[in-house]
Write a structure and sequence with these properties.
This protein is mainly alpha-helical. About 80% of the residues lie in helices and about 0% in strands.
């Protein structure tokens, strides 16, 4: 069976997939606090740009080593974890009071 360019074991692939979520969990509360202090647009845009930049580094990291890829995926989780709570903060201020329950 052809596994492609990277011959990683199933356990390494599982660790790499989990790396994103390890980082994601850490920044959930941080994202909400930053949204309140700095504003949602700045936090959301920064998170998206950083996640996109890290995603562009993924092929290089994957060819370097599984642990380099883990570091990139973990950092992607850190930057992506801020997006979800930030989105709710922005919606809470942006939406008209009568429509807030429909958006969330």
């Amino acid at each position: 069976q052809n596994q492609g360019e990277l011959a990683w074991s199933e356990s390494v692939r599982g660790i790499l997939l989990g790396g994103y979520f390890y980082g994601y969990v850490i920044t959930q509360i941080v994202g909400g606090v930053l949204e309140q202090k700095l504003g949602g647009k700045i936090v959301y845009a920064s998170g998206l740009v950083l996640t996109a930049a890290l995603n562009a580094l993924s092929p290089v990291a994957a060819r370097t080593s599984p642990w380099a890829m883990f570091a990139v995926r973990f950092c992607m989780g850190l930057t992506s974890g801020m997006l979800f709570p930030t989105m709710f903060g922005v919606w809470g201020r942006w939406a008209p009071p009568t429509e807030r329950t429909k958006l969330l």
